[in-house]
Amino acid sequence: VQLQASGGGSVQAGDSLRLSCAVSGRTARIHGMGWFRQAPGKEREFIGDTTWNVRSTSLPDFVKGRFAISKDNAKNTGYLQVNSLNPEDTAVYYCAVRLYGRSSFDFWGQGTQVTVSS
User: Fold this and answer.
1) Residue 97, Cβ neighbours under 10 Å: how many?
2) Which end of the chain, C or N, has fewer beta carbons within 10 A?
3) What is the pLDDT along the chain (118 residues), one digit of tens a residue?
4) HSE of 24, CA atoms in CB hemisphere, 13 A
5) Beta carbons of 21 and 110 less than 8 angstroms apart
6) Angle (nearest 5°) at CA 94 between 45 and 89
């Protein structure tokens, strides 16, 4: 399974971005897709995840209302919509997938940089 993240960039505070994560390979093995971010000097942070082949999504409270996770199974692509960005959202954003029978995210995209200026 291979993942390709895209959609990051340099934006102004208050802007929105939609990050994409294209998946290729043995996609039938995928149970879920997660999104993470890592800011400079900080540990990687879990944002949320979605079950790949079933329409269900979970998001931690701190992102609800600003971040939304979705997917298009026909395109084998997952999305992270990020709204009302602020400088504290500056980070490298990663997508990852968890396979059936696995509890961890084993396959990761290369990350896409989001830089928010005030």
Assistant:
1) 26
2) C
3) 999 999 999 999 999 999 999 999 998 899 999 999 999 999 999 999 999 877 766 676 667 789 999 898 889 999 999 999 999 999 999 999 999 999 899 999 999 999 999 9
4) 4
5) no
6) 55
Task: Taking the CA atoms of 33, 107, 103 and 48 in sequence, report the sign of the dihedral they define.
Answer: negative
Cα gap 103→89, rounded to integer Å:
27
- How far from the centroid of its chain's Cα atoms is residue 78's Cα? 7
Q: Are 98 and 30 in contact (CB under 8 A)?
A: yes
Backbone angles phi and psi of 2, in degrees to 5 = -120, 145
In 55-101, at which residue ranges do the beta strands (DSSP E only) sit? 56-58, 67-72, 77-82, 91-99
Name the one residue in this structure whose structure tokens are 């600003």.
Answer: 66
